[in-house]
């Protein structure tokens, strides 16, 4: 999506907030700057009020004719994930190069590492969500990306019976980010979902009696 900034005043230069630890660096220089609480912002033609990570309204800093805002204040409005890598003193914006398995952030009573239950089509996925209960039911679990990632690549398979409705929902806003179905004949299906700024995800499937939902947690990943 092509997103444009409309900014009253100088060029926009985005800095990460101090809470991320940037003030711990050794190469800092003191400067004299000014806060401009009168400056207004628009995102795609709509008014935008910059806020810090705690929701408090902030004013831009003016220094040498340039306008500075925290990265974290605008990343959500632009739909870009942001994270600070303290070890390497690096700001990470958008989709990451390497995928991060969702296993560490998954929570469910149907999660299992039992070798008798983690194998699908001859491949052992080691750690899976596997709802093979009886009866027509809802099969669901939670993920906690904590706003650190741009994309979720979620794998899932229907076993025994087709799954007519499968969805991924932002747990805080109840907005469904993906709605689809999973047929047994499709095998392992991969869903690509934009999760920028999302803290918690609700994964749900309507499963028929005799059917199961299989989600590998080792090959599903964030980026």
Low-confidence stretches: 1-12, 17-23
What is the CATH T-level topology of the largest domain? Jelly Rolls
Query: By helix and strand content, what is the structural category?
Result: mainly beta
The description of the largest β-sheet is: 7 strands, antiparallel
Q: What's the overall geometry?
A: elongated
CATH class of the largest domain: Mainly Beta
Number of domains: 2
Average pLDDT rating: 84
Strand content: 35-45%
Instruction: Compute the CA-based radius of gyration.
Output: 22 Å
Q: Can you write the helix and strand succession as a string?
A: EEEEEEEHEEEEEEEEEEEEEEEE
What does this structure look like?
The protein is mainly beta. About 5% of the residues lie in helices and about 45% in strands.
Indicate the topology.
Elements: E1 5-7, E2 12-15, E3 34-35, E4 41-43, E5 46-48, E6 61-63, E7 66-70, H1 71-78, E8 82-85, E9 90-93, E10 100-101, E11 106-107, E12 111-112, E13 119-120, E14 123-124, E15 128-131, E16 137-143, E17 151-159, E18 163-170, E19 176-182, E20 189-194, E21 201-207, E22 212-216, E23 221-222
Parallel strand pairs: 2-7
Antiparallel strand pairs: 1-4, 3-6, 4-5, 6-7, 8-9, 10-23, 11-16, 12-15, 13-14, 15-22, 16-21, 17-20, 17-22, 17-23, 18-19, 18-21
InterPro entries: Cu_amine_oxidase-like_N (IPR012854), Mao_N_sf (IPR036582)
Protein name: Copper amine oxidase-like N-terminal domain-containing protein
Keywords: Signal
Q: Concise description?
A:
Helix content is 4%, strand content 43%.
Considering the chains and any ligands shown, give keywords for the structure:
2 domains; single chain; Jelly Rolls; 223 residues; elongated; 1 helix; 7-stranded antiparallel beta sheet; 5-stranded antiparallel beta sheet; mainly beta; disordered N terminus; 23 strands
């Amino acid at each position: 999506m092509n997103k444009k900034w409309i900014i009253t005043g100088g060029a926009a230069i985005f800095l990460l907030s101090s809470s991320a630890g940037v003030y711990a660096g050794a190469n800092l220089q003191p400067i004299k700057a000014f806060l401009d609480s009168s400056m207004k912002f628009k995102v795609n033609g709509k008014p935008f009020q910059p806020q810090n990570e705690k929701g408090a309204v902030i004013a831009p800093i003016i220094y040498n004719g340039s306008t500075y805002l925290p990265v974290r204040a605008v990343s959500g409005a632009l739909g870009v994930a942001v994270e600070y890598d303290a070890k390497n003193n690096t700001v990470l914006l958008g989709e990451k190069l390497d995928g991060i398995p969702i296993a560490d952030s998954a929570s469910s009573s149907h999660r299992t590492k039992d070798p008798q239950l983690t194998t699908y089509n001859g491949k052992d996925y080691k750690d899976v969500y596997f709802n093979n209960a009886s009866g027509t039911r809802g099969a669901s679990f939670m993920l906690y990306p904590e706003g650190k990632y741009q994309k979720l690549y979620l794998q899932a398979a229907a076993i025994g019976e087709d799954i007519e409705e499968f969805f991924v929902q932002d747990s805080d806003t109840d907005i469904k980010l993906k709605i689809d179905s999973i047929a047994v004949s499709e095998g392992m299906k991969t869903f690509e979902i934009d999760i920028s700024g999302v803290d918690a995800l609700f994964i749900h499937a309507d499963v028929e009696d005799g059917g199961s939902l299989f989600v590998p947690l080792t090959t599903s990943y964030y980026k």
